[in-house]
Model the fold of this input.
Amino acid sequence: MKLLVTPNNDKPGILESTTELCNALHRHGATVFMTADDKEKYGDCCDLSGKNVNELTKNCDAVIALGGDGTILRSATIAAVYDKPILGLNQGRLGFMAGLEMSELKLISRLFTKEYEIQRRMMLDVSVRHEGKTKYRNIALNDVVLSRGAMSHIIDFRIMHNSDACLNYRADGIIISTPTGSTAYSLSAGGPVVDPSVKSIILTPVCPHSLCNRSVIFASDSFLDIEPRISFDNELFLTIDGDGVFRMEKEFTVHIRRSKVNAKFIIIKRDSFSRVFTEKMLH
Done:
């Protein structure tokens, strides 16, 4: 089995954890892929390296991301593009996306005996349009965030649902999340927690200046258009999964729908979502 290992090298103890993981994978006869930079750090832990993580992902059988939710999120998005499954090993604090804790590494044997399930997580297709032309496009596993600049005024957002006028918010921003992302920024902004098996699109305002301050959950086959009113002295930024940033301009519209691409998470332990959520939040 060819496995791409993507560690977060900024995490304390990551050298020991990654070495332990790779040793376990080698005992089961796996070929370990790493980026060239990681190869320099981990040496013989890596069997094949390359500079292009996309090419490595394309040629592996599965991805193992070692770190927190951010690490798993970035690797899962790339893996989804190439229809590769991913297993997250938690080296962070919460680790909602992780399939295993490092203390449970012995269970990695189930990856080779095929004692696991694949859970498909919906993603969002995001495009920014102006006068019928697409200016920016991306996919999101967690969330899409529209937020004002530090010195900007509050912004008016018009929400269209399936081409019908739906909601108006005056707020610092808008979060549109998947069920997977419902436990991330959306939760911090007062949004609902949604089981990842429930396919839906969640819209949550950030610091709304109105009586309409509730989140709304839409069906997964919905089309959402967000029309922000940007004045000459305002800045508005679109962020995908906390990473890719695009500056919005006047009369730009954000179009969001369910992506045809799914993230495929390897589930080795069969813990219920409610149990995992309670355990993580009380940790």
Notes: Helices lie at 14-27, 36-42, 53-59, 69-81, 109-112, 185-188, 273-281. Residues 69 and 230 are 32 Å apart (CA to CA). The mean pLDDT is 91.
